[in-house]
Amino acid sequence: MLDESGLDILFQKARTPRRWMARPVETDVLRRLYDLVSLGPTSGNCSPARFVFITGSDGREKLRPALSSGNVNRVMGAPVITIVAHDPLFFDQLPRLCPSEELRSWFAADVGLAEETAFRNGTLQGGYMIMAARALGLDVLPVSGFDASLVEDAFLADTGWRANFLLCLGYGDTENLPPRAPRLAFEEACRLL
Fold first, then answer.
1. What fold, for 41-171?
2. Nitroreductase domain: which residues (predicted)?
3. Which end of the chain, N or C, is surrounded by fewer C-beta atoms within 10 Å?
4. pTM as predicted
């Protein structure tokens, strides 16, 4: 079990930055980040998430038109902007990722099941990325205010991958953050049956 300092890093004291420090995120950190994310469980070890790390100015400018106006400054200032996507044809990897089961044929025969599985598990892997980034000392800003079609056309057209959400990664400027927004109480959000 994690001690309180570990829980603080992942949840209790972690905050979403509004501004970023100019400190870069090294490629080795991004590789380590993916290595941790890849260890998180997915159904049938399907691992449908795909990640595009945007670090350069050309990529940022390609992304800018897809951002909602309220997100431009917060996103463009991040050292790394990650497109969290999923591969609709993830099942082609299943003979390697889950060789003990014949799962590929299930998904290849049912487009709806494949899309639902890819989206759900890819989103789950994006959540793992948030936790892994925090564990590695990075701050994280999840973003859903963007035009997924523009992102797919600009960055994913040659892959067939589908954009889900963006994750800005870096070292946040946490000075003068407002108080943490309220959360629902256990009694409001949970049921014990």
1. NADH Oxidase (3.40.109)
2. 15-171
3. C
4. 0.96
